[in-house]
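User: Modeling request: complex.
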Amino acid sequence: MFTPEQAASLAPDAGTLNRAKKLAKPNKFRNTGYSERALWGVALGSSNYTTLVDLQGPAYKCSCPVHKMPCKHALGLMLLLAQDPSAVTDQNPPEALIEWLNKRDGAAKSKQNRVAGEVKDTKAQTRRVAQRAKNVDQGISELKRFLEDTVRMGLAESAKRTEDTWEQIQKRLIDAQARGLARQITWLRSNIGRGADWIHTSLRAVVHLHALITAYEQRDHLPPELVDTLKERIGWAKLKEELQTGPSLDGTWLVLNHALFYESDLYTQTIWLMHRESAQFCQQLNFASSFNRETLPGGYQAGVLIEGQAYYYSQWLPQRAHFVRPSAFDHTPVEDWQWLQPYCQPDIRTAIRHLQTQRIKQPFNITWPLLLKDVRAVTIDEQLALADAHNHVLMLQSNYSRPWQLLSAMGKETVTVFGTTTQGMDILPWAVLGNDQWQALNLSVQDE
Amino acid sequence: MDDLYAKLSKIAVIGLQNQPDYELSPELHTLLAEAQCDNEAQRLLHALTLAVMQQELAQLPRPQRCDELPEIPAEWLQSITQHQRHQLQALFQFPSRNVMLAVALWLQRERRVLPESLLLEYMETYDDRISCRYLALVASARFRWLLAMNRSWAGSISQSIIEALKWVQNPALWLDIEQNSETFTRWDKAAQQAYLQKLYRYQGDELLPFIYHLWQHCNADGRKALWPYVYSVWLNAVALDEPAQQWLQSALNDKSKPIKFAAICLRAHHAKQTEPDWYTEIKQQLSQFIDASKPKKPDLNPPETLSLELKQLGMIDDDTYGLSKAVVRLGQLLVLTGPAVWAELLQCNSVEALRRLAKSRFKEELEPFLLEACIRHHDLAALAMWCQQYKRCKYVKADILSAWLINTGSRLIPPVIDVLLAQKRIELLFCDKLWRAMAQFGLVLSGVEAQQLFTAMAEYLHKRRVYLNTGSYVLLGVWLQVSHDWLTQQKFWPTLKDKIGANEADGLVHILRLTK
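Assistant: Request completed. Predicted assembly structure:
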């Protein structure tokens, strides 16, 4: 079925895993069973909870009041059956499981139908598309005026704008269905007038927004793949199922990192992968509301190889993707890391030159992955940085809050570092390869 | 272009309305003309976009002068094995301070280091001061290197561990800190014990000057905490040197009555050799209240008044025992004189003297005093008899024993172990303070002893309705160090698992695997 370690890798956090391990005992469940598709059982405690796990996904359902999924009961059931498949006490799947699986299958089918173009009312659909485009255009013209006002009054004065002014433009953009732009305004608002390098940071945010909306206005003259990318940046969401008709890359992938952030009832999961054959990167960005008991894909253990297919959101910029695995439980540990070396940038200058070339082609992308070999930790004016053999230096991103963790992993060794950069002048480290060990670095919320 | 970026960014900051007439290069002017800008602000935004992008894209890293990190100091503790690392990770299933304490004690005893990755994980769970002090004792050199480089990097690391590391690294520095701030006296007892336990590992001649020095700077609570350490070193001392005499004199004049009384007891312990006249005097005082005309059945007559002589010997009227004042006075006198003096008076050995006094008409009231006397005067034979003989108040006795074990150090362990094994006083184990103290002092039983004790404990549990919490079992496991293979093969294991709970049993097995 799957190993306890594979089950453990689905845990949303260490606390839940610890609690689940305590529950993974035959006397803590009754009516346990499993099939190829699902697991089921009743968790015993002060109250009894019906716990169901759909291994396709995986997805979880539990009658306990906890919003975070998988909850300790679902994870505990998985751990129990992984440790001891003979702990099964009930061969017949309960009614609740059959009903839930049918519901899930039905929902998946109707999603697929929508993707396949089965539109019930084509006229209404056309009307909705036109209305959305009109809304976005309206939002963009308001944002244009906002940016013009910003440079007219100056960034210094804009930093003093009232909360109402910022909130108003954000709300307008959300109403205009341009959430991508609204997010960037949030970012500008939180950085303007703050931090040592705020002028450049804010200017970059302003010109990035300006470039994005100017390019969008010229969309009739641009290649459709680029227009797709612009639309995604502005806020046109694509259904994951919709992506499966677009560009994709199949094969073996190295899990570079797995990070989870939590803020205001929303989990944000960031997973970076690298295709073993082509060294193509893939970023998975998943969101789950804890309030709605949504689940995030599990089984991504940093430093292992997994099989799967990345469906990229943009053909123009194949980076963010929806990743589909045949099984969330299969992975292969890396025995020898030599294969990775040719894919690493040999030094910092080469890496940044390569990056800048890419940035010219992709000016609308913000975050770039970097895989650097033979770098060491140094300090410049007491600030921590990465340096190569030629003493070319990349500072750590100013909001990186756990340099001691990086130092703990690196020591004074020369190692391979995976990280991301925004403009090629600093780096947010995500993982370190030293002494043939891949060590993922935990990042806290404010790091991203 | 850098100039253009500088110029345009300045305008962007102060605002176009404040500097409307800026000039652009002719090339840029032509370029912007093609962009068909609606207004000046748009024109500036276009120009800024080009300038920012060009400025950023033109930037490539250049060689810089950078400072190499300092060398990582050599590790003087042994590293843990991969197996132990896995076991430690597994122990995170049991987030209890006792588990952490057991791990720290075990590592400390084995002189093994807790790798910083695990230490950081532990610290996220246990960031209180006491836990940190234990963790700091087993922190790696690499961890201290990491913190020493720049404290600002350690912003999210528990301040408690940073503080704890200070005293682990440098007791002298700690002494300075304590002298200046007297923080030692504000520490809670466990923190003081953790530190003093570390001190206890020092040789007496290193420890004593340090304690004498510290003594002068502590308030009464601090002096009480320091007392057992100097007391335990002194108890077997044949003669007192000059600094020791000075210290004893200051303790005899201490404002704190308990310290003063303890100092008088210490004086009395050595009096036969050092002050024979005074020794005779205190023996005479005792004889006034113990009628030894029938030495086998002495009659006790507690002092009805607190005479000047008794006051000079440090006796006070103490209501805390809930006994009559006269009995308390007699009790104090028994503590002061000790089993050797009773034995002389009753013409027998100290074990017999204790037995006779314990059968006297005030036997119940005098119990705590007799026990305290055995401990203070380090009469291990009498103490062993005491533990064997008296079955009442067993928990109280275990509690008193453990408190004194903590205070007097490892010298008291052998008789306690003898009692536990030979006399089958297994119930004493259920005072967790007792074996925690033993674990702290690094006692390790041999395999057979441990198995005997564990079996006796399991049988005891089987017969009675006694439960231990997880942490207790974990600590007990560390202390006993029976092998998990042996344990899980025992007949009593299933019953024991039921008694303590499957999860707790797992914790015990994990810690035994770790300490294997």
